[in-house]
Write a structure and sequence with these properties.
With 148 residues, the protein is α/β, with parallel strands linked by helices. It contains six helices and five strands. Strand 1, helix 1 and strand 2 form a beta-alpha-beta unit.
């Protein structure tokens, strides 16, 4: 029997998301215990201060709208592939680390499963988002090392 009853799995919709979901499933009693979370940071906040403003801002908004529609569509396929209830799949907007921690708190998650990528320093070991989540998380965090 699992000691984790509500597992948040922070996926990025990439090829390694499968590894994260499978790892989380191995820790859960069933797929209904998983909450799949994808967080997209707004382009405007990610690229603030880069480039001109004005009409470019409108173009960025149009591009972002298309991107968000595509990402939401891609996210729809993940629950069925693992028998995870559709209502346990969440698309959030904001800074990934902050939104992951907030969602885990709001949902009463007892474990956050997140991937890690090589960077530099401590972030090299954990990845920047994983590092930020771990810093202030008030629950267990499983950082799954992604071998690229």
């Amino acid at each position: 029997m699992s000691s984790y009853n509500n597992i948040l799995v922070a996926i990025d919709l990439g090829e390694y998301s499968e590894d994260l979901i499978e790892k989380a499933l191995s820790l859960a009693s069933g797929p209904e215990q998983l909450q799949l979370v994808f967080v997209q940071q707004r382009m405007e906040s990610a690229y603030r201060g880069v480039g001109p403003i004005g009409s470019v801002r409108a173009d960025v908004s149009t591009i972002e709208d298309r991107l968000l529609k595509d990402l939401k569509e891609r996210l729809k396929g993940w629950p069925d592939a693992y028998s995870i209830p559709v209502e346990n799949t969440h698309f959030l907007m904001g800074k990934p680390a902050d939104k992951i921690r907030e969602f885990a708190q709001d949902q009463g998650s007892d474990l956050i499963v997140i991937d890690t990528h090589s960077r530099k320093g401590l972030k090299r070991l954990l990845g920047s988002t994983a590092h930020e989540v771990l810093q202030d998380a008030r629950r267990d965090v499983l950082a799954v090392r992604i071998m690229e």
